[in-house]
From TrEMBL, chain A:
Transmembrane region(s): 5-26, 32-53, 74-98, 110-128, 140-158, 178-200, 212-239, 259-279, 309-327, 339-363
Protein name: Spore germination protein
Keywords, sorted A to Z: Membrane, Transmembrane, Transmembrane helix
Keyword Transmembrane helix included in the entry's annotation: yes
Protein's UniProt keywords contain Membrane: yes
UniProtKB/TrEMBL annotation, chain B:
GO BP term, example: spore germination
Alphabetically ordered keywords of this record: Germination, Lipoprotein, Membrane, Palmitate, Signal
Residue ranges of every copy of the Spore germination protein N-terminal domain listed in the record: 19-190
Main location: membrane
InterPro entries according to UniProt: GerAC_N, Spore_GerAC-like, Spore_GerAC-like_C, Spore_GerAC_C_sf
Membrane topology reported for the UniProt record: Lipid-anchor
Gene Ontology CC, one term: membrane
Signal peptide interval: 1-20
Domain Spore germination GerAC-like C-terminal: 206-356
Localization in the cell: Membrane
Entries under Gene3D superfamilies matching the protein: Nutrient germinant receptor protein C, domain 3 (3.30.300.210)
Name by which UniProt lists this protein: Ger(X)C family spore germination protein
Length: 379, 359
């Protein structure tokens, strides 16, 4: 079961490219990004490990069940809805960014709303499945994308055009204090663990996330890679010029004897997969959270066929994505993304505090009242 | 079942997303930008278009060239479309040639056009046309199997691998154009009847071209900056000529601190003698190694001083200086001031592995 947890860590660690995280970090590379990344490694590790360990106290329960168990509905329901909203915004932002990237690079003559419709439709269909199906789909998609990730990583690091001097120059600016925006962006590399808030429902009662030491390791790898490789390719100054930073970085690599020589197209395929995966998971999480706003809702993670409400909710999400697509442009999207990253960061902290304190409280009351209640959320 | 049918029928709406068929497109294989001399329309844009044919054999490549003068590259390309019957496609244009005069007349303001176009690969090759780009485009190499292939092979190292050829990618040129302490380098292409001569490099500062190296210097530059193997070291020894074929070369740069920084370059070279007077190697193996090394160091030092005096930094000494001491903007200003007085020291360590298959 452990691997299902790490799939989420993997794709969230990589999807940041679609959420302007590299761009935000690069913009402040001379004033605080490096320190921000270092700080976020500590913060991200702390947040994720405390939350994961606290969740052990709540076997087979997602965040909605935990909140409803400990708080009155008028406190719990808005909180659950807020968490759902945060997921939804993430999905909408990624769908928009992918549409823009595809429009800019793959086929500029195509109507962008058509591509968005495709993407929304796919996300709608995938997200409205039952939690178990989504979990399995994640596995397949991760397995499909891992070879591509490995190829791009290898191509980047082994490239002779990579300028290590430029990387060292930027790495030298680690003394400046980072802004909150940078820390919020950099902690996103570690956010994969948040999927536990929903998918913990699927885990067996005695489930424990093992190999926790890999979390800081993976996060560090993703953050350093995402931040420094573009600097190595575009230098310390020119790197700021590009909006779709990683797209152009992938375009700076060649496969001399590949079927196609632009690594860029592999990158596009990879990010279509990752974006679809992210959209699927976020649509699904948002949907489950909204459904769980009512305290009487009983989660059924393995329900087949799915109820109509799933379709209705996901269709609404799709509509939101569409409306956002009509309203937003590159510049607005960037600003919204920055705000979202900060909100998400604060929500993560709040979640950690709530879950940790509830876990401590549950630990203090030994067996007096909890066993009777603990049995209820499961079947 | 009905749901699936609806989903499939929806897919019918997705057909024909503005795609144009391959036979309705003109593939640009080489683009040339020249300075026209006319202040109203300073850019002369020429594109070499591939005429597709089923035959693939040497000499069968057919191309067509169209030219226009325009106030900017984007406008020119847009206008050029009205001169041809098919849609221009830059996705396969892997060689861009800038006229020599264009680079002397300052930086083209619309150079960002290349990086902005989504269909232009950031790994396309950039070069300088001498005397101008159009004359390079007009060459029809006889060995070309398909349009534009000759220059692709030249710069891609898939065909010829020569120590005289420098490859500059678009992203590398953009990087060097903006970077602190690292300046652009472009190979120079000179047309010659049915072929190209690519054996020089042009060094630029941030604004315009400064210096063109001779073929000899180009080779030295490529060996020390780009680890160009399959190169050679040569030296006269009395009436005889000693030529060493290099199959391994590494260089390491060290920039010292101090008011007048000292740049030390350590070069390691390994190779075998391809031409030498008989029995020379056996008489004094190490002596010859040392002599070759000293000769090479002298040549490189001379080149480095020449580059320094032209006020350019193609090796990235400045960037390396900043990287070594984690410097910021102030250190860079200090470096720029000191660069004209920098001293160089080159230490070359040569290892001769043998004299080929003869004694």
């Amino acid at each position: 079961m452990n691997r299902y947890f790490y799939y989420h860590v993997l794709y969230v660690g990589m999807i940041n490219v679609m959420l302007f995280v590299p761009h935000i970090l690069i913009k402040e590379r001379f004033d605080g990004s490096v320190a921000g990344i270092l700080a976020s490694i500590l913060i991200g590790t702390f947040l994720s490990i405390v939350t994961i360990v606290s969740m052990r106290r709540f076997p087979r329960m997602g965040l909605p069940e935990i909140l409803h168990r400990h708080f009155a509905p008028y406190v719990a329901s808005p909180l659950v809805a807020l968490a759902g909203l945060s997921w939804l915004v993430g999905a909408v932002l990624v769908i928009f960014s992918l549409t823009q990237t595809m429009g800019a690079f793959l086929n500029p003559e195509m109507n962008e709303y058509l591509f968005m419709a495709l993407m929304v439709f796919a996300a709608m269909f995938a997200g409205s499945r039952s939690s178990r199906t989504v979990q399995f789909a994640c596995e397949i998609l991760v397995l499909l994308s891992l070879p591509l990730v490995a190829l791009i990583m290898f191509k980047a690091v082994s490239n002779r055009q990579l300028n290590w001097d430029a990387i060292r120059v930027v790495a030298g600016h680690f003394r400046d204090l980072p802004s909150i925006k940078v820390i919020a962006a950099a902690t996103f590399f570690f956010s994969g663990y948040m999927s536990l808030m929903l998918f913990n429902r699927l885990n067996p009662p005695d489930f424990k996330v093992r190999h926790l030491w890999t979390l800081p390791l993976l996060g560090t790898l993703f953050s350093l890679f995402t931040f420094f490789i573009p600097i190595g390719f575009h230098g310390t100054v020119a790197v700021e010029e590009y909006i779709y930073l990683w797209s152009v970085t992938a375009d700076s690599m060649v496969m001399k004897f590949g079927f196609i020589q632009r690594v860029f197209f592999i990158f596009l395929v990879l990010y279509s997969i990752l974006s679809l995966m992210f959209a699927m998971n976020t649509f699904h999480s948002a949907m489950e959270f909204f459904k769980a706003c009512s305290p009487r809702y009983k989660p059924q993670p393995e329900q087949v066929p799915v109820p109509k409400i799933n379709w209705i909710l996901c269709a609404c999400f799709g509509l939101v994505a569409f409306l956002y697509g009509i309203w937003a442009n590159d510049e607005k999207n960037q600003r919204v993304t920055e705000i979202w990253l900060v909100c998400r960061f604060s929500l993560e902290i709040v979640t950690m505090l709530v879950v940790a304190s509830l876990a401590v409280a549950a630990g203090r009351k030994p067996r007096a009242s909890s066993p009777a209640r603990a049995a209820s959320p499961g079947e | 079942m009905r749901r699936i049918l609806i989903a499939l029928s929806l897919c019918l709406l997705l057909s024909g997303c503005g795609m144009k068929d391959i036979d309705k497109r003109f593939y640009v294989v080489t683009t040339g930008i020249d300075w026209s001399g006319n202040p109203q329309k300073p850019y002369r844009i020429s594109v070499r278009l591939a005429i597709t044919s089923a035959k693939v054999e040497s000499g069968s490549s057919k191309t067509q060239i169209v030219t226009i003068d325009a106030p900017s590259i984007a406008e020119g390309v847009r206008h050029l479309k009205s001169f041809v019957d098919k849609e221009l496609e830059f996705g396969h244009c892997r060689v861009f040639i800038l006229g020599k005069e264009l680079l002397q007349n300052g930086p083209p303001g619309s150079m960002s056009w290349f990086a902005r176009r989504r269909d232009i690969q950031l790994v396309s090759y950039f070069a300088v046309g001498d005397p101008d780009a159009l004359s390079v485009l007009k060459v029809q190499p006889q060995s070309e199997r398909y349009p534009g292939n000759a220059l692709f092979l030249t710069f891609g190292k898939e065909g010829t691998e020569s120590p005289y050829i420098t490859t500059t990618y678009l992203f590398d040129m953009v990087r060097r154009h903006f970077e602190m302490g690292l300046d652009p380098v472009l190979p120079v292409i000179r047309p010659k009847e049915k072929t190209y001569e690519v054996d020089r490099v042009l060094l630029m500062d941030k604004k315009k071209s400064r210096l063109i190296l001779t073929p000899e210097e180009t080779q030295l530059y490529n060996m020390t900056a780009n680890k160009a193997t399959k190169s050679e070291m040569k030296m006269s020894r009395g009436a005889d000529r000693v030529v060493l074929t290099v199959n391994y070369v590494r260089s390491k740069i060290d920039v010292g601190q101090g008011d007048i920084p000292l740049v030390t370059m350590k070069v390691k070279i390994r190779g075998f003698l391809e031409e030498s007077p008989p029995d020379l190697l056996e008489k004094d193996w190490h002596g010859l190694e040392r002599e070759l090394g000293k000769h090479f160091s002298g040549q490189v030092e001379e080149l480095l001083y020449k580059i320094r005096d032209a006020g350019v930094d193609p090796y990235g000494f400045g960037l390396h200086y900043l990287a070594s001491y984690f410097g910021g903007k102030k250190d860079y200003e200090r470096w720029v001031e000191a660069y004209s007085k920098v001293r160089f020291k080159v230490v070359t360590e040569v290892k001769i592995t043998g004299a080929g298959v003869v004694r």
